[in-house]
Specification:
21% of the residues lie in helices and 18% in strands. By secondary structure, the protein is an alpha+beta fold. It has a domain of 102 residues. A hairpin with a 2-residue loop joins strand 5 and strand 6.
Amino acid sequence: MSEDVTTPPPPVPPGPPAPGATWTPGATPYAAPAAPAYGSTPSYAPTSAYAPGPTWPAPRPSGGSSAVGVIALVLSVVALLGVLLLGVVVATGPWGYTALGDGGYSDYAPEDDPGVTDDPAMRGTAPGMVVGQTYSGDRLALEVARVYENMMMSPEGFTCADIDLVESGARSACSGTVDGDQVSVTAELEDGEGHFVLVDEDIDFS
């Protein structure tokens, strides 16, 4: 004779109270979720998307910038001294200017010919000269005045004596005003082609 084994039905979770049923305080209709263990991080805990980056030590000041500054200062001082030295050489050397008469300027003159200037600004050219012939003083006076005009001066009333014989070394006395000052110079021919230089007989450059 066999025994009938009855399998009990599965447990039914409690549901909401049926209509008309009385709800008992403290009753749990649904099972509460299990709390995570103390000190552990639940799987649903949010994580920060911006984690703090590593910290770096502050850079130490480099000594290269100070060295560059010292070198620049030294070069500036050397350049300044060079400019000052050049100014002294120009002012005291044969290029220094010396007054020529009342209206002109000269750098220096050869010792064997006092009063003759080697300054190109005090030279001119009289056109139409022919060796062995005479030359008009009026035409020469125009070119003498032009010499002063080229030096940014204002010549007026210049007159020159006629040259009786055009040749190297021939001279003509000239006079006029330059910037309101009376000027007396001599135009000396350097050749027979009209090139002349202004000479002041009253100044000895030697």
